[in-house]
Every structure is written in C-alpha cells, then in structure tokens.
Amino acid sequence: MMTAITTKDILRIAAFSDGDAGGNPAGVWIGPALPPVDEMQRLARAVGYSETAFAAKEGAGWRVRYFSPASEVPFCGHATIALGAALAQREGDGVFALTLNAAAITVEGRREGARVAAALQSPPTWSRPAEPDLVADALLLFGYHAADLDPRIPPGLAHAGANHLVLALAGRDLLAAMRYDLDAGRALMARHGLTTIVLVWAEHARKFHTRNPFASGGVYEDPATGAGTAALAGYLRDIGWPHGGAIDVVQGEDMGMRSLLHAEIGREKSGSIRVSGTARRLSDD
User: Fold this and answer.
1) Mutual orientation of helices 226-238 and 77-91 as an angle, nearest 10°?
2) What is the reported pTM?
3) Fewest CB atoms within 10 Å of the CB: 34, 192, 245, 261?
4) Per-residue model confidence as pLDDT tens digits over 156-200
C-alpha cells in the first residue's frame, strides 16, 4: 500500500526563471507509481500552483500527468520544465522520455550551479484561423475591440498538446491593461474547448511579450506558459511569420514575476517545438 502523500512530498520549482527571480512555480511529485486521480487532484489543489506534475518510472522513461487546482490538463510546459529540473537533480543530467495521456515527449535537464537549464520537446503542433464567434467572445471578455488587434497576426487556434486561442494586440499598453472576470473566462474556455488564451504583443519579429489567462484551470493568469509558447511558435510558423528559426518570449512582467522563454521553430508543418529556459528551486515551506 502506498504511503499517504502530503504537500511536504511535493517539490516546488519555478520554471522559466529570470536568473534568481521570476518564473512560474510548479509542483513536482516523483514516486514509484502514480497516486489515484482523486489524490493527485487533491494534492494539486492543496499546493495551489497553476499546475503540479506527477511522475512515476515506466520502462525506460516516466509516466506523467498534470493537474491544476481545478482539473487535469493534457500537457503543461512549465511543469514539464520543473520536472526536467527535478529529474536532473535526482538522476543526473540527461534527456528523459515522458509518456503523457495523449503524447510522448522528452525533457532535458542540465545542472548549472543552483539552477537547472531545461528544454522540452512539445507534442505535435497544429493551428487554424479562429472562428469569428470565438474571437468575438474573447474580445468581449477582455473589453478589447477589433481595432486593438495586430493585423499581422490574425486570431488563431493553436495546439501544442492543448488548445490555445492566440490574440495578438497592437500595443504593449493593451497587454498591460488586460482584465477579465474569472468565472466568465472559465465558461468561455469550456464552451470553446480552450486550455488558455495567449495574449501577445510583438516587440519585433523574434521577441514577444505575452500574458496567459488560465481560467479553465481556476487560475487568473500564469507568469510563464511553456505550452502556450509552443503553440504560439507553431502558429507563427504556420502563418509564415519571419521568426528566423526561434523566438524569445517575456511573460509575467505585469504580475511582477518576469519570466523568460525561448522557442526553437523547425520547418515541419506539424512539428514539435523546443521550448527552453532555466528553473530554480523554491522553499518547500
């Protein structure tokens, strides 16, 4: 019988940190077998981070599931980076094979003093133009207007393990002004099958600033979102954006939790996106 798990058994790691600050906190649990679903959900709710990753050894790799405080999610980028950091500290530097509910991916962890450099390969990507009713609902939710959008990056539905709406804004001030009602956001995301909405402003062709409402998981906003960044990168590839093979994303500034993400973009239409950054251990208190 598995020993009862408490929140003290959960590692706390900030992924996509900006040096010794910022990043998105994730919970990480590693054990011999995954706990029951209701136990993982209870622990994720008790930890209170936007996601907690649970991993158990399976063959030559690891079986992984992700839970937000409100629900299970199919893929979480920042929790994967946090898991990569935890595995590197536990197993040594390397590339670790991960089996998710609906995809097989890898995460790499390399120790660099007190921090760990980590990189994930996302699940396969796809994208398509967003339906007009979805765009209208999203604009209403945030109080934006069609004129606030950047016409160079039309609204799109982008997938990299989970579904995200990409809305590109015409100014940094519009991004800073983001406000919405959490319950209304949760209802919109459930209605349209979204995990998050990626709000983005292009500083230039290879540098972007983003905000990421995650109402579907009961979280107002994430300070760093690897899955959303992978989806954004795949969408930019698909619309022919001049990305030059990679983009840098700054997220969390408006939350006081500046986070840095780097995405490498291949030419294959449905190809995986490599998303990398650093991770730092947080207090377990």
Assistant:
1) 120
2) 0.95
3) 245
4) 999 999 999 999 999 999 999 999 999 999 999 999 999 999 999
